[in-house]
Amino acid sequence: MFDSMKNEGIDGTERFDSPDKGRGLRAVRQFAVGELVFACPAYSFVLTVNERGAHCEHCFTRREDLFKCGKCKQAYYCNVDCQRGDWPMHKLECVAMCAYGENWCPSETVRLVARIIMKQKVTTERTPSERLLLLREFESHLDKMDSEKEEMNQADIAALHHFYSRHISGLPNEQALTELFAQVNCNGFTIEDEELSHLGSAVFPDVALMNHSCSPNVIVTYKGTVAEVRAVNEINPGEEIFNSYIDLLYPTEDRKERLLDSYFFTCQCTECTTKSKDKAKMEIRKIGSPPDEEEISSMVRYAKNVIEEFRRLLEMCELSQEKMGAIFADTNVYMLHMMYQAMGVCLYMQDWDGAMSYGEKIVHPYSVHYPAYSLNVASMYLKLGRLYLGLEKKTQGVKALKKALAIMEVAHGKDHHYVAEVKREIEEEK
């Protein structure tokens, strides 16, 4: 069983007790910028419903000539090998989807947990995803969950029973399911493509071992269903290896709020202690007498509410920018978020010039606010580069793609297929 298995570990790293953070991962040798620290296959994963037909269910490859499962006609594969490889997990959904038809609608989290339960039933040995941390060791933080999170947990458990009880014999008891859902919610990962579009959800136990920092020294990217962890700063022997759990665009108080709400801890990293980027992130227009603190706080509250409630309407974004623009500079992160949403709506409406205009305003402040080798910055350069090329602005397009490539070669590694795709796009413009 698990405990008798030899722990092979991960070359160049070790699990240790991190002061004030619990267990963590540290380097036992030096890692250079861009070097692969380790790769971790997903313990379990699920492709998001929205990408069915565009990506293989098993390896997540993006291609146009996929063929579909003959039974459910909803899962798509590269070839017979991928279909066979996915069958141990897909058969669970295949039968259920055929049974429920159009009424089949479990959430992605429920689908992922169902697959984890299936895998745990047949897996008795430590998996290649658990060289340093077992999935069963995940923190659940059940004692810190508020009533809203408990209700969501119960709704997920009810959905699991509804959609899967006839297809999984001997589901874990209520307490075990409550803990498992909480563990997945705290330790699950979103798999994204090169433009940070959502492809699916997964659990990567060894990746989950890393603690958070708002000044991370590694970045996590994905090659199919394998997570790759690369150094974005030089890491010396004895130094802890830190990942970031959240979007780092926002000021300290926002980040702390998000981390406390989702991961139940108060961040004490260097960036949270020094708040070195907060002034630039909360820049105020220099016109007339400066607004007082309450006015700024009021505008922040307003910005947050607008971001949450009116994302889908470009007109609302533009009105809000006009209102906030009286106080906030274009480099202010709330203005940037509003412009990002507006850019998304422009892309949806195929207003390419409008999207390009917003991208141009966003990309430089992003490169200032985000850490070096940020995927957010790379994806913005990618979007902008592809927009430029589509609008026949070849020189600007190639320049933007090259900036994206410089980040991606470090973050994804020089041999990643996303890197090859961008290189090919650049070559085609020569």
From TrEMBL:
Cellular component, GO annotation: cytosol; nucleus
- Tell me which PROSITE patterns the record gives: SET, ZF_MYND_2
Q: Where in the cell is it found?
A: Cytoplasm, Cytosol; Nucleus
Sorted alphabetically, the keyword list is: Chromatin regulator, Cytoplasm, Metal-binding, Methyltransferase, Nucleus, S-adenosyl-L-methionine, Transcription, Transcription regulation, Transferase, Zinc, Zinc-finger
Q: Ranges for the MYND-type domain?
A: 56-94
Query: Main subcellular localization, coarse class?
Result: cytoplasm
Could you list the residue ranges that cross the membrane?
none
Asked whether the keyword Transmembrane helix is assigned, the reply is no
Q: What class of enzyme is it?
A: transferase
Q: Which GO terms describe its biological process?
A: heart contraction; methylation
Q: Which residues form the SET domain?
A: 11-246
Q: Name one GO molecular function term.
A: zinc ion binding
Pfam families in the record, alphabetically?
A: SET, zf-MYND
Report the PANTHER family cross-referenced here.
HISTONE-LYSINE N-METHYLTRANSFERASE SMYD, N-LYSINE METHYLTRANSFERASE SMYD2
Q: What is known about what this protein does?
A: Protein-lysine N-methyltransferase that methylates both histones and non-histone proteins, including p53/TP53 and RB1. Specifically trimethylates histone H3 'Lys-4' (H3K4me3) in vivo. The activity requires interaction with HSP90alpha. Shows even higher methyltransferase activity on p53/TP53. Monomethylates 'Lys-370' of p53/TP53, leading to decreased DNA-binding activity and subsequent transcriptional regulation activity of p53/TP53. Monomethylates RB1 at 'Lys-860'.
Record protein name field: [histone H3]-lysine(4) N-trimethyltransferase
Q: Which organism is it from?
A: Echeneis naucrates
Gene responsible for this protein: smyd2a
